[in-house]
Amino acid sequence: MARFMLLLYANEGDEAERAERWAQMPLWNQLTEGLREAGLLVDNAPLHPAATATTVRVRGGRTELTDGPYAVTKEILVGYYLLECAELDEALKAAAALPTASFGSVEVRPVMSPDSLPGPAVPLAGPATPPTARD
Amino acid sequence: MPQQPAATPDEAGAAVSEVFRAERMTVLATLVRQAGDLQVAEDAVQDAFAAALVAWRRDGVPRNPAAWITVAARRKAVDRLRRDRATAERAARLAELRRLADQGDAEDTSARGPIEDDRLRLVFTACHPALDLSAQIALTLRVVAGLTTAEIARAFLVAEPTMAKRIVRAKHKIAAARIGYRVPEAADLPERLRGVLRVVYLIFNEGYTAGEGDDLVRADLCAEAIRLGRLLRELMPAEPESGGLLALMLLHDARRAARVDAVGDWVALTEQDRSGWDGERIEEGLAVLVAALRTRRPGPYQLQAAITALHVRGAGTGITDWPQIAALYARLADLEPGPVVALNHAAAVGFAQGPHEGLRLLRPLLDDPLLRDYRPLHATHGDLLRRAGDPDAAARAFERALALGGNAVERAELERRLHRMR
Q1: SS in 3 state form for B195-260?
Q2: Domain ranges in chain A?
Q3: Which of A43, A125, B141, B249 is 20 to 30 Å from B258 at the Cα level?
Q4: Among candidate residues B46, B180, B78, B87, the one with its CA nearest the CA of residue A124
């Protein structure tokens, strides 16, 4: 046996597209269950949008944080850690300690918890609310 | 809650404004901790103030308006959390909020400790380094200072929807990425405090820079920055740099009116009409600075405030202590090395030890890629060359400075200097 990582890429889509995708939840559940029953699934989860990412670099001994997923184009995905942390700072500290942070970058992206997944009953696109009706 | 007879719309409105000004941040800061979500808490506090306006007109202003707002905001937060599925640990938050809401009255506010902690939590969360600097600034003005998104957008010359998007995105990141609602640990505090002070100073500078935008809105920004500075000093009395920043802002702000003359031309510090200075602000700034320096833990803001204080005293007595100013810039360059500090050091040395010594320090900066297009570098270069007796080179430096733009007031001053070289 060998382990394989499936990396899912997609544009983030607008509100309507996201709602459409979340409406496919039953299909996702069915696929995931199928993989689990076949003994292939180790773990899976959707990620929060790219806007919630923090990129960690260590240069000259100093930790630099960037708001967003800004890996340099030449940098490619080389590995992953999945951590359970009380809060972001804990994850950022762990990221800064990885050697990759000193010559590349480590993107810290929150994983969606199952209880915050918008189910089919709530046709809301992700946890983001539109920037209207404020103030 | 005991009520007085119905208030006139004006009385009720005035009472709401007063509580908003005095208590909004405290109520919000505590509710963020209890509700576990900045957006929910902010909306709930806003709901509570809107409800107060209606209820107080109808029933009169309650005896303890702040407590009324606290209780109302908590109930509104319960309503909002019930509807909002996306909030982390929603069930636990709801249970706790309901318990507090049933209890009915506000948390005991006689113990200042936890309340102050909540306000500090709010400050450090808004200025978290995982947020873009522009988002930290916007969020600080929004949630800490209580400005509306429209006001912030106007002050930063940004379209309101753009600013709204920036603020909503920041709040969403705080919730989704689990940015903790707490004061940093002792080990991280110095660095994080520097970040907070920087945000406040950037707000001040945005307001202080003459030229672009509506002058009145800009003056408001300075006033907000000073208010934030006072708050930080009050919340962190053991940190002398918060005093240093407040002193620096007060000493600059005191001279705002005198920076330009009646026809809008820039006036050098030494030639400013001191009757246009705000003496009270200067006194306060000096007192705050002295108190900070007494801790004997100097930092960049204390040093800059001390330099500004020497300039102010110099303008008053006609004798500026340039050797002392040059020494303070040298110290500042040690603590916070950077090309702009190096430029100021060169300029001060130019006055303390003569233009040739100043030029010796300035010349290497002309090749610095960060400074090459920095107007003050070429203006200072021109001044030093003029005083060193090289009017042709001075004129070239002033022309270079002029070519780099700047606002009308600054340009007029450079034109004047250039004209004198010919």
Answers
A1: HHHHHHHHHHHHHHCCCCCCHHHHHHHHHHHHHHHHHHHHHCCCCHHHHHHHHHHHHHHCCCHHHE
A2: 2-113
A3: B141
A4: B87
User: Residue A47 has what DSSP assignment?
Assistant: B
Q: How far is CA B379 from CA B223, B367, B390, in A?
A: 30, 15, 14
Least Cα separation, residue B293 to chain A (angstroms): 28
| pLDDT single digits (tens) B45-99 | 999 999 999 999 999 999 999 999 999 999 999 999 888 766 656 777 787 787 7
Strand, helix or coil for residue A59: strand
Q: Do A87 and B178 touch (CB under 8 A)?
A: yes
Q: Is the CB of B150 less than 8 angstroms away from the CB of A128?
A: no
The CA–CA distances, whole Å, from A69 to A75, A126, B32, B89, B223 equal: 12, 18, 27, 26, 36
Q: Do A129 and B39 touch (CB under 8 A)?
A: yes
Chain A residues whose C-beta is within 8 A of a chain B C-beta are: 48-49, 51-54, 65, 67-68, 85-89, 92, 108, 110, 113, 115-116, 118, 122, 124, 127-129, 131-132, 134-135
Spatial distance between the Cα atoms of B91 and B81, rounded to a whole number of angstroms: 9
pLDDT in tens, A38-83: 999 999 999 999 999 999 999 999 999 999 997 677 899 999 999 9
In what order do the strands lie in the sheet containing A54-59? A62-67, A54-59, A106-108
> In the 8-state DSSP scheme, what is residue B274?
G
DSSP states of B143-154: IIS---HHHHHH
Residue B368: partners with Cβ closer than 8 Å, 6 or more residues away? B339
Q: Which of B130, B131, B165 sits opposite A92 (nearest CB)?
A: B130
Report DSSP state, residue B110. Answer: S
Res. A108: pLDDT tops 50: yes
Cα–Cα dist B329/B310, whole Å: 12
| Greatest distance between any 2 Cα atoms in chain A | 56
Mean pLDDT of the A110-115 span: 85
Residue B54: per-residue pLDDT? 93
What is the residue-wise DSSP string for B42-91? Answer: HHHHHHHHHHHHHHHHHH---SSHHHHHHHHHHHHHHHHHHH-TTSTTHH
Residue in the structure block whose two tokens are 């200075």? B277
CATH number for the domain formed by residue range(s) A2-113: 3.30.70.1060
What is the C-alpha to C-alpha distance for residues B306 and B21, in angstroms, rounded to an integer?
Answer: 32
- Taking the CA of residue A28 and the nearest CA in chain B, the distance in Å comes to 20
The residue among B37, B82, B85 with the most chain A CBs within 10 A of its CB, best to mutate, is B85
ipTM rounded to 2 decimals = 0.83
Residues 6+ apart with CB under 8 A from B303: B244, B328, B331, B332, B335
Q: How many helices (H) and strands (E) does chain A have?
A: 4, 3
